């Protein structure tokens, strides 16, 4: 019998796979259990009729996180992923007809800003000059630290970092200090929607996302789509001897005397391990997988009171023609930015004028669609399931509204050219991936749900139990969740006194 330490990971999302790969690389006996027939979770794909359509993530930024992940396990990222840097980053389409295609080159980007509003060039440069310090503080003092314990949080270093973040106002008002033109304010704040929060509520530190896209990493595309990252993680897991079981839904995490012992599947099968990591959305883990006596402060009332991100209404389309005017990433704003956001986030209703994000990867990657055809991925931010929208009744009419807007925006006769269509509402995200309230991006990163105040990686009540994923510190978005998996693996190695193998470990990395 093997005397390796054993880890069971519930869920093969980005966070679960990241932790699994790191532990398998360290010689642990790792089993990942995934309820769906395919791994990846939100980072997966719909693969049907010759189309490969990413389910969730499409925008790859912070490429250094991915490169470092591979490097630390002794692998070369280029052997697993073909990464393409995008130029332009994305095409922004405004209601007044302005089109802003933001170039990846800083000089050209400044020219583009000047073209829209010459008076804002100075303000933009001022924005850049102060955001760098905040970005470095966010990365080093928050994202890359587990912040599990109050004493870790209340250090001079972290408190100085908090001061450097200067995060008490919201993104929109922070950007408005530098930028006067509404179109440019929108261009520098819409990124909060990547985290499922309104820029009028998001802490101002999230303006670092625009900075990361414009000035730090740019925006990347992995050939085959973002799901290629999930596939690469599964490949790495297998190379390091870990195993993945699909169609294996966990019903309960087994806890005895305050210690995680293993899991029970819906089939009744029980598996035992030294540690259990739940990659299931944190509130769902608490609500469904952990017995009430071991939930600590996360009672049903507490979970109910937490702020969740918005939902996403998704149209995954395959069209029998191409729309050559599209870029890879296209955004269609609305006639009133704030009104649309308020309808979603404050009033919990479907917006009168939907904001639309459209992803057309076929533009640079013909491998994702049959010849001469196109993948059209359409994401519309909508309220999560805490609102009382009756999706069965509302969907047909709302779909027409979205299609009409796209047809007017140049996707001529779109409805006639759709030959493949799948629709995901917040109900689908809840049912398929067990996302609490169908919130597409997990717990919202409000100030009081960030850093030490976000659910921790190490369970506060149960020994040998850990959590990874978008609703756990450091938060959502694939690079951040990959970092979460790495932090979890480091904590486990430390807690189990097996942190003796340094990364990269040439012996195991092959
Ligand atoms: C529409 C959309 C667009 C997005 N766009 C971007 C983007 O452009 N860029 C970006 O970086 N991020 C983006 N994100 C966010 C990103 O997808 C997430 O932050 C990240 O993928 C979450 O990973 P996770 O580890 O939390 O796992 P999840 O994806 O939540 O995976 C959890 C896994 O656990 C499985 N599971 C659940 N319950 C059980 C159970 N009981 N037993 C076994 N398995 C179970 C699920 O099936 C799932 O596979 C987007 C998300 C969405 C939804």
Question: What does the model show?
Answer:
- This protein has helices spanning 14-25, 63-72, 106-116, 121-143, 150-153, 156-165, 171-176, 182-189, 208-216, 227-239, 282-289, 300-305, 337-345, 391-408, 414-417, 426-433, 478-495, 506-509, and strands spanning 6-10, 29-33, 45-48, 51-54, 83-85, 90-93, 99-102, 220-222, 243-245, 250-256, 259-265, 270-272, 275-278, 311-319, 329-332, 356-359, 374-382, 418-424, 465-467.
- The model is unreliable at 503-510 (pLDDT under 50).
- The chain folds into three domains: 6-83 and 224-306 and 442-509, 3-Layer(bba) Sandwich (FAD/NAD(P)-binding domain), CATH 3.50.50; 104-218, Orthogonal Bundle (Guanine Nucleotide Dissociation Inhibitor, domain 1); 310-433, Guanine Nucleotide Dissociation Inhibitor, domain 2 (2-Layer Sandwich).
- 35% of the residues lie in helices and 18% in strands.
- The protein has 18 helices and 19 strands.
- β10 and β11 form a beta hairpin.
- The strands form five sheets. It has a seven-stranded mixed β-sheet with strand order 7-6-15-16-17-14-18. Strands 9-2-1-13-19 form a five-stranded parallel β-sheet, with helices on one face.
- The chain is of the alpha/beta class.
- It is globular.
- It starts with 5 loop residues before the first strand and ends with a helix.
- α2 (63-72) packs parallel to α17 (478-495).
- The chain binds flavin-adenine dinucleotide.
């Amino acid at each position: 019998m093997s005397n390796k330490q054993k880890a069971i990971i519930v869920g093969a999302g980005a966070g679960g796979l990241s932790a699994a790969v790191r532990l398998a690389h360290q010689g642990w006996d790792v089993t990942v259990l995934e309820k769906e027939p395919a791994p990846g979770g939100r980072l997966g794909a719909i693969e049907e009729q010759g189309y490969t359509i990413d389910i969730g993530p499409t925008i790859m930024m912070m490429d250094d996180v991915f490169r470092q992940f591979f490097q630390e396990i002794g692998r070369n990222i280029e052997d697993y992923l073909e990464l393409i840097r995008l130029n332009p980053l994305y095409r922004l389409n405004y209601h007044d007809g302005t089109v802003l295609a933001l170039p990846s080159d800083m000089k050209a980007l400044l020219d583009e800003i000047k073209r829209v509003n010459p008076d804002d060039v100075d303000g933009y440069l001022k924005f850049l000059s102060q955001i760098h310090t905040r970005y470095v503080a966010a990365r080093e003092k928050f994202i890359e630290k587990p912040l599990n314990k109050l004493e870790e949080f209340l250090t001079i270093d972290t408190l100085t970092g908090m001061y450097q973040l200067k995060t008490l106002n919201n993104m929109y008002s922070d950007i408005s200090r530098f930028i006067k033109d509404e179109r440019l304010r929108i261009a520098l704040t819409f990124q909060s929607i990547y985290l499922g929060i309104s820029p009028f509520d998001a802490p101002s530190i999230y303006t670092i996302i625009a900075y990361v896209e414009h000035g730090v990493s740019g925006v990347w595309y992995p050939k085959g789509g973002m799901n290629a990252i999930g596939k690469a993680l599964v490949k790495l897991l297998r190379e390091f001897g870990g195993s993945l079981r699909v169609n294996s839904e966990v019903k309960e995490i087994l806890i005895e005397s305050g210690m995680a012992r293993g899991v029970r599947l819906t089939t009744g099968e029980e598996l035992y391990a030294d540690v259990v990591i739940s990659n299931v959305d944190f509130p769902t883990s608490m609500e469904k997988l952990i017995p009430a006596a071991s939930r600590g402060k996360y009672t049903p009332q507490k979970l109910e009171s937490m702020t969740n991100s918005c939902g996403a209404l998704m149209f995954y389309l395959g069209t029998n023609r191409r729309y050559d005017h599209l870029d890879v990433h296209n955004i269609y704003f609305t006639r009133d930015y704030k009104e649309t956001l308020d309808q979603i986030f404050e009033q919990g209703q479907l917006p009168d004028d939907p904001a639309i994000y459209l992803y057309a990867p076929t533009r640079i990657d013909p491998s994702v669609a049959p010849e001469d055809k196109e993948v059209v991925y359409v994401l519309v931010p909508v309220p999560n399931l805490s609102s009382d929208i009756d999706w069965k009744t509302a969907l047909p009419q709302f779909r027409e509204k979205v299609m009409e807007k796209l047809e007017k925006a140049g996707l001529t006769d779109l409805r006639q050219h759709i030959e493949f269509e799948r629709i995901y509402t917040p109900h689908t995200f809840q049912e398929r991936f067990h996302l609490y309230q169908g919130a597409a991006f997990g717990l919202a990163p409000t100030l009081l749900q960030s850093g030490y105040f976000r659910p921790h990686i190490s369970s506060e009540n149960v020994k040998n139990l850990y959590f990874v994923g978008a609703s756990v510190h450091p938060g959502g978005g694939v690079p951040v969740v990959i970092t979460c998996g790495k932090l979890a693996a480091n904590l486990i190695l430390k807690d189990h006194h097996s942190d003796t193998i340094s990364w990269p470990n040439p012996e195991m990395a092959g």
